[in-house]
Structures are given as C-alpha cells and as structure tokens.
Amino acid sequence: MKNKKGISALISVIILISFTMVVAGILAAWATQFVQQQRSELQFCAKAKLLIQRSYYDNNTKNLTLLVYNYGDVPLKGFSMQLFFNPAKNDVKTVKDDRIIQPQEVSTIVIEDVANTLEEVSIRSLQCEGAQDSNGRYDIQGLGYPAY
C-alpha cells in the first residue's frame, strides 16, 4: 500500500469556517442593501395619495373622463384603471397610463370607447399601490341610474 497524505483535520475545519464566513458576509451585505431599499420605498409610498376629483361620461363619444388629483407629497408615475361593467362587476377592462402626476397636481385622463353599462371605475398607482381611489356608477356624471 502506498502512504497517502491529505490535509489535516484542523486545516479542513479552518477552510470550512472561512468559506462559511465569506458566504455569511456576502449575504449580510445583500440583506442590508435589500432592507434599506424596501424601507425607502415604503417611506416614499407612505406620502403617496390619490383622489378621483371628478368623473364624467359622454354618451355621444363614449369617453370616460377622470380628473385625478395627487394630493400626496411625492410624484406618481404609471397608473392602472379598472373598469367594472354590469351589476355583477365580473366584466373588467384594464387600461394603463404612463403619465406622471406631480404632487398637488390635477391630471385629466380620458378613457375612450367605454360602454354605458359601467358600474365602477378604480385607479391605482403602479408605483405605490396604496395610492388608489374609485368611483361608482352614481358618482360618475352622465351615467347615473343603470341603462339596463
């Protein structure tokens, strides 16, 4: 038999501990950066507020116009509007808009080709999903009572 030599148990333990410490350091750095980013996003979005100031429907053009007010302290970019149709609200149309609404600014959003069976419209910021509002059929000027 040949006399085989390997690394000693002490050296192997030191190498394993060193490897573990390097991996732990990398994970700690990543976790710290991730948590700081999440916290800054939460602080940003805590200042985000959105309101549909007025909504009206034009029966001739079939356009729905929303006056959206950013009454928060941060600019909001990107919006998703959901239009719910029929009394069960199970027919839904989603419209996206990439505009930026600055703080204390009112923006006009026009959604074309909307059926007069609209029951509710909701808007939410894609950047801060807590910034949202909705209007029901009776809040939308020009719709009022159902057209069924």
Describe, in plain words, how this protein is organized in 3D.
- The chain has 148 residues and is α+β, with helices and mostly antiparallel strands.
- It has 2 domains: 8-46; 50-139, Immunoglobulin-like, CATH 2.60.40.
- Helix content is 25%, strand content 39%.
- The protein has one helix at residues 9-45; strands at 50-58, 63-70, 76-85, 91-101, 105-111, 118-125, 132-136.
- The strands form 2 sheets. A 4-stranded antiparallel sheet has the order 4-3-6-7, with no helix packed on it. A 3-stranded antiparallel sheet has the order 1-2-5, with no helix packed on it.
- It is elongated.
Quick gist of this model?
The chain is α+β, with helices and mostly antiparallel strands. It has one helix and seven strands.
Number of DSSP helical runs:
1
Helix/strand class = alpha+beta
Evaluate the radius of gyration: 28 Å
Helix-strand sequence:
HEEEEEEE
Number of domains: 2
Number of strands: 7
Report mean pLDDT, rounded to a whole number: 87
Classify the beta-strand content into a percent band: 35-45%
| Largest β-sheet summary | 4 strands, antiparallel
Oligomer state equals single chain
Order of strands, widest sheet: 4-3-6-7
Give the CATH class of the largest domain. Answer: Mainly Beta
* Global morphology: elongated
CATH topology term of the largest domain = Immunoglobulin-like
Task: Return residue spans where pLDDT drops below 50 for at least 5 consecutive residues.
Answer: none
**Which percent range fits the helix content?**
25-40%
Q: Any guess at the CATH architecture of the largest domain?
A: Sandwich
CATH H level, superfamily name of the largest domain:
Immunoglobulins
